[in-house]
């Protein structure tokens, strides 16, 4: 019996194998921390492009993985974090409403900056047979950058659409994108210029 047949009910319409995966980093966030205002404002301008990219990925049958900080709450889980952002009147509610996960999306909680450090992401990507990762989210110069570094060392091809990544300032974000392009060979074209079908066939 194939994995797809075996897990049909568990995963719904999500494919059990896909060479291309979209990873959304730290977008489920209450933005109720010191210094969050600048990051929130930058992310807000990127959210429409992120939402459009996710919609395009879902229509193409590309798995979506949400990777989020646990904010030091080791007894928490992704659903509790999502509920907190949507129901507790926090600043991040507007963003979470636009980017909230679907029932068939995957999620990974991370304790540190990189989505790979002490998480199950390696196992999940191996299960999916992923080769190319599209990274989007915050912060471009911290968690996205650290995740991209670790992905590059694992020989993943990287796509990091410049309009789908935000940092506390535009200048910091641009510098991080240029470094990821130069050092990690990441494709940083805007999301509107990216053909998901061609990426999936690489």
What does this 3D model show about the protein?
With 202 residues, the chain is α/β, with parallel strands linked by helices. The chain has a single domain, classed as 3-Layer(aba) Sandwich (Rossmann fold), CATH 3.40.50. It is built from 9 helices and 6 strands, in the order ααβαβααβαβαββαα. Helix 7 (143-153) links the parallel strand 4 (132-138) and strand 5 (157-159). The longest helix is centred in the first third of the chain and has 24 residues, at 36-59.
Radius of gyration using CA atoms only: 16 Å
Q: Mind summarizing the main beta sheet? A: 6 strands, parallel
Number of helices: 9
Would you tell me the structural class of the helices and strands? alpha/beta
How large a portion of the residues is in β-strands, by DSSP E? Answer: 5-15%
Give the count of structural domains: 1
| Annotated CATH architecture | 3-Layer(aba) Sandwich
Write the layout of secondary structure elements.
Elements: H1 3-6, H2 8-11, E1 20-25, H3 36-59, E2 64-69, H4 78-87, H5 93-99, E3 106-110, H6 121-128, E4 132-138, H7 143-153, E5 157-159, E6 165-166, H8 170-184, H9 196-200
Parallel strand pairs: 1-2, 1-4, 2-3, 4-5, 4-6
